[in-house]
Amino acid sequence: MIIGVHPLAGFDKLLHYRVPENLRDAVAVGTLVRVPVVNALKLGIVGEIGAPKDFPVERLKLIAQVVYPFPALPPDLLGLARWMARYYACGLDSIIETMIPVAVRRGAGLKQEKLVSIALKLSPEDLATLDKRAPQQAKLYRFLEQQFRPQPKAVVIARLGLTAAVVSALAKRGVLREESRRIERIAYDDDHSAGELVAAMPHALNAEQQTAVSALATSIADNAFSVSLLHGVTGSGKTEVYLRAIDTALKAGGGVVFLVPEVALTPQTVARLRSRLEAIAQGQRCVVWHSHLSEGERLDGWLALATGEARVVVGARSAIFAPVQNLRLIVVDEEHEPAYKQDETPRYHGRDVAVMRAKLAGAVCLLGSATPSLESFTNVESGKYRLLQLTQRVDDRKLPFIDVVDMRIEAMKQRTLPSLSGKLVRAMHDRLERREQTILFINRRGYSSSMLCTKCGHVEECRHCSITMTYHRADEMLRCHLCGDQRDAPARCPKCGAPEIRWRGLGTQRVEETVRRMVPRARIERMDTDTMSKKNRFREVLASFRAGKIDVLIGTQMIGKGLDFPNVTLVGLIDADMSMHIPDFRANERTFQLLVQVAGRAGRGDRAGEVIVQTFTPQAEAIQFSRQADFAGFAASELKIRRDFNYPPYRHLIHHLFRGPNPEKLKFFAEQWAKLVEKTLGDRVELRGPSASPIEKIKDQYRWQLWYFTNAVTKVVPELARLREGFAWSDDITQVIDVDPVSLM
Ligand code: ADP
Ligand code: ZN
Predict the structure, then answer these.
(1) Considering its fold, how many domains does the chain have in total?
(2) Are residues 461 and 518 in the same domain?
(3) H or E segment at 540?
(4) Atom 1 in ligand 1: which residue has the minimum CA distance?
(5) In the list 53, 54, 319, 405, which could disulfide-bond 289, CB 3.0-4.6 Å?
């Protein structure tokens, strides 16, 4: 038997090996093996069985070891890895390494909690019959017969290359005994309140939910690839729809991946989801997957999925690579979240990869959001995705009233650039008296180097790109990050002539100080990445907020996700402009999403909520449409702009970053490269730049960048990768290609 192996660790090639007789049964496409490469043993994934014609097989080396005798990458994942390597212009090895956790690659100690042993001795006759009827079971029996003590189930399954079903079959007949030695390493164990019975389906669905659920059930029954976009206003009960769909997929014998943004994976939501999912899966384990797992936890979860012992995984971005067997459904909650994009190699987008994995596995992909990305929304319009809608909040709770405060007027009244308007301060006092709570959001997506006139709200934009110009302090210039256009920074507002032009930037700390001064009796807590560096601090603060020991919680978006505080009746957004005036064509979209999400935090209990949004540009469409949570209206107006400038979702955008210690040399190479691309791919790609990056230097490395707009990303990216190989780069220049970047800064 000959196999082709993709070695990991820097070998982006397929190498061929022979498989010794005794390992044949254990090897399939996707198996993790150890093979000799040059003079060392390397891990690799079996990429193909067989070899090309006329291949000199006699001279091939033998593989050294089979790490797990079941595929570490199910066929759909291997296909996905190959697609990603092409689409994102990176090595297959780096993708496979992302897909298979470190602990798994080490083949680390298969420490398992379930033990199996023989409970009933079979007579030789019975064993002979078993040999004929169920040879796998007989193999298992013979193996266990020779053991002195109970064996870990996963080890047995792995060693013999069986499925969990074989063990269960023998156990059912009473031949095997299964015992649990629970030394399971479950994340957030202490939150998994023991004994609390969770109803699998606690709510009767309303009509809209029912329609969505039925539509999904039909898709799942079809057993074919399809994508549905569930657009449901905040509080419309999307989670209930996800859970019913998951229930359907599990009942059909399928596996499920449920993705949520990492920030949403608070202990509270994890515990809740997990117990709901386990109730649905009827005692089956639900694997939790996120970046804070220990290696042991990750290995446990991975093994449970790879061996088919567990069929559901809930987790952040990288859970899309969990080795779920027989995948039937992928759910992506908050599909519009930028956090689904990984900002290091491989720079993949979890949602896009989810759609592709569903396609390769022939599964159903369900994307959900209150504010869908315009990418997904246009896919609905073009008929690629089906739209499911929840337009009502459950129990007909009203969407909160959004009050927009014009900070230009406030600035005049207070004769300074205030962080809190009079209205917001009064509303906070109000809540204090009524013993209700307030959340203040500070918009951290902000970028302090845009110019804003506090008199008229004017912000300087690039004439060619419709994005905010960035102020460069060193030479007093305004520059565009897309095309590199530049001009002198004005001393007065170019629109109204007022001298009050300045750059923006309100930190959480400054807001906290102001609140302490203005609402001195309130108990205040600030929550941002600076104060929350300790893992438990985050949970403590949320717990005491829930317990009513905090009146005002101040923080960035991280406190907005997936949390339900019934006693919060006031939500303030301190600075809505911050996300609007960043040099990014998605700035409006982000602002709209933020406002709708933030508003959804207020009045989730039985009390009505109030939302106060402070802004210097109250007329902005992102703000006006968000007042009615009018997604359709916003999408139509924003898509028109995107169409005019031919921006995503109408074309793909690719970012190419160059780094090096010498700015002149860097510029030279970037320009030479751009010329080459223009010459070779000019008919398929529109280039902008090269120009200096928004942050021109990091750690003594200068940065230049180039943007490509294209309709044909699957053709262009492999071409760029090929050109890049052949281009004579200087040794001290490194570069990174980012396909479909979500942040332009
Ligand atoms: P969304 O994700 O759409 O913002 P959630 O899924 O968080 O909304 O649901 C909001 C709340 O409504 C949750 O507490 C949920 O348990 C509850 N809920 C969902 N569906 C129903 C229903 N049909 N009847 C009553 N309550 C429901
Ligand atoms: Zn420009």
Answers:
(1) 6
(2) no
(3) helix 535-546
(4) 235
(5) 319
